[in-house]
Amino acid sequence: MAEFDHLLVAIASENDATATAASLKAHLGIPERVTVVHVVEKAGGAPDKAGVEQREEAAEEGFAAFRDALDGATVETDIVYATDVADGILEAAREVGADAVVFAPRGGGLFARLLTGDVTRDLIDRADRPVIALPGQR
Questions:
Q1: 87-122 pLDDT, tens digit each
Q2: What is the CATH number of domain 6-133?
Q3: I need a surface site. Which of 34, 83, 106, 128 has the fewest CB within 10 A?
Q4: Predicted model pTM
């Protein structure tokens, strides 16, 4: 398996951050450098689902949970604002020079993916670097 020095890890919530960090640690170990991103999806002209401050607070809670789950490893964080989650993640990976993008699929049925889009598929289809999908959360 290839070794990656700098991973960009996408999280969606505090619970997701804890589970993703645990899966990362179990399957890939703790990399030399980790940048964790939380994408605040902007509505592109329509009213946003939640206030920016509320979403930023949720992101900070997720970052703290990720750090705690990795036992104090050095973790950089970034809140990304984008109208497309996959594009936001991939742009963040380019900006920080990550070797690979890591995420844990969030689940959801076929109907939910049809309504909201499939970020997993979009990440893989548009990626300009390796994308690592950790085992899904149950």
A1: 999 999 999 999 999 998 876 554 444 444 578 888
A2: 3.40.50.620
A3: 128
A4: 0.85
Q: What would the pLDDT profile of 37-68 be if each residue is shown by its tens digit?
A: 999 987 665 555 667 788 899 999 999 999 99
CA–CA separation, 4 vs 46, rounded Å? 39
Rounded to whole angstroms, the Cα distance separating 58 from 23 reads 21
CA Rg, the chain, in Å? 14
Token code pair at residue 7: 């991973």
* Three-state SS letters, the chain: CCCCCEEEEEECCHHHHHHHHHHHHHHCCCCCEEEEEEEEECCCCCCCCCCHHHHHHHHHHHHHHHHHHCCCCCEEEEEEEECCHHHHHHHHHHHHCCCEEEECCCCCCHHHHHHHCCHHHHHHHHCCCCEEECCCCC
Report the distance separating Cα 62 and Cα 43, nearest Å.
Answer: 22
